[in-house]
Write a structure and sequence with these properties.
The protein is mainly alpha-helical. The chain has a single domain (13-124), classed as Arc Repressor Mutant, subunit A, CATH 1.10.10.10. It is built from eight helices and two strands, in the order H-H-H-H-E-E-H-H-H-H. The protein has helices at 13-21, 26-34, 41-47, 53-65, 87-90, 93-106, 108-111, 120-124, and strands spanning 69-74, 80-85. A two-stranded antiparallel sheet has the order 1-2. Strand 1 and strand 2 (80-85) form a beta hairpin. The longest helix has 14 residues, at 93-106.
């Protein structure tokens, strides 16, 4: 069976996006940068359940390679390293918000103790940090 893609496409655009952000913990790192304003390795390590230092290092390198984030090294003692979103990474914000919106509305029995649907903004606050 042939896939229904336009003739000028090399692959499915949805599948391509999933290949970029679909590896375990990548979404969590993006979420923590976007929603929690985290920038440092130890912040991610301490707040992403189940991640270990080697996996975190690997994901951060992969995310740099795909240009979702950039690493800034500060010449201090001790050396300080921070990760920030690139323009490409920031473009994922509405996608991640829609994913969260889907779950908070349609999978509420899996998300909330009272199983009642809510909006993403209700859960995370109306004043979410703006990613520019």
């Amino acid at each position: 069976m042939t896939e229904a893609l336009p003739s000028d496409c090399k692959c499915c655009p949805i599948d391509n996006t999933f290949k970029i952000i679909g590896k375990k913990f990548t979404i969590h790192i993006l979420r923590n940068i976007m929603v929690l304003n985290q920038k440092r390795f130890n912040q991610f390590l301490g707040s992403i359940e189940g991640i270990n230092p080697n996996t975190l290092s690997t994901r951060l390198r992969e995310m740099e390679k795909t240009k979702l984030i950039e690493k800034k090294v500060y010449n201090e003692t001790p050396i300080r390293i921070e990760y920030t979103l690139t323009k490409k990474g920031k473009a994922l914000k509405p996608i991640l918000e829609e994913m969260a919106e889907f779950s908070t509305r349609f999978c509420c029995e899996d998300i909330f103790k009272d199983a009642k649907p809510r909006s993403f903004r209700h859960v995370f606050g109306k004043n979410l940090p703006l990613i520019q």
